[in-house]
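Exercise 7.
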Amino acid sequence: MSAWQTSSSVSVLLLIALAFAVAGIVKGGVGLGLPPIAMAILVLAMPPVEAASLLVVPSLLTNLWQAVSGTALLSLLRRFWPLLVVAALVTVLGTGWLAHGNGDAAITLLGVVLILYAASALRKMAVKIRSDTQRWLGPVIGGLTGAATAATGVSSVPVVPYLQSLDLNQNELIQVMGMSFTVSTISLAINLSISHHAPAVFSLASLVAVICAFGGMWVGAIIRRRTNPTLFRTTFLWVLFCLGIYLVLR
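Solution. The predicted structure, written as tokens, is:
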């Protein structure tokens, strides 16, 4: 059953609302996490390709703003364009992986990605990558990120741990993550369109997802100002880690 067909189901709309509200709260609180959280909840009740389709519009809108709101857009583009281009190409070349692959395998792979993402963030890896290594490693990371995006709909691994290991200040890191997520989301939309699972841009389900994602971000920003941000982030990562384990073992 497709996202378009289920968009009139009250139970499915409630699940979508819950998934994107929770994911939005996390993104508003820590600056990232919307795709992995939303995907982890949605795949409990629908095929990964349908969940990824619903993810495109809210993810694109939230990340595009993050990508263009900083002051280092051009310099970051000059530095990271090989990573972004390779990630986009591999995501598009992976057309059909989500749509025609084994659904259980895709969910298990998503669980592995969530575990790796959460574990790397919890460990706060202090690895620093030299500039000469970045020239060849960046496209490799882009390729792996594109493959993960095409197979699971989540574009956080391994690009986020990689970017966190570079000599970027906090504002640059947030902006380049927004750029990476935006490119991956657009590429995923192309991927899904080619495989005849075009994002439900004008569906009721997509509208619910966008409203709940932005509403959740607003709530998350309030929580961030009123609580310990480190505790909030750590809690989110442990929840994500446990969700990943559940998806692998289910």
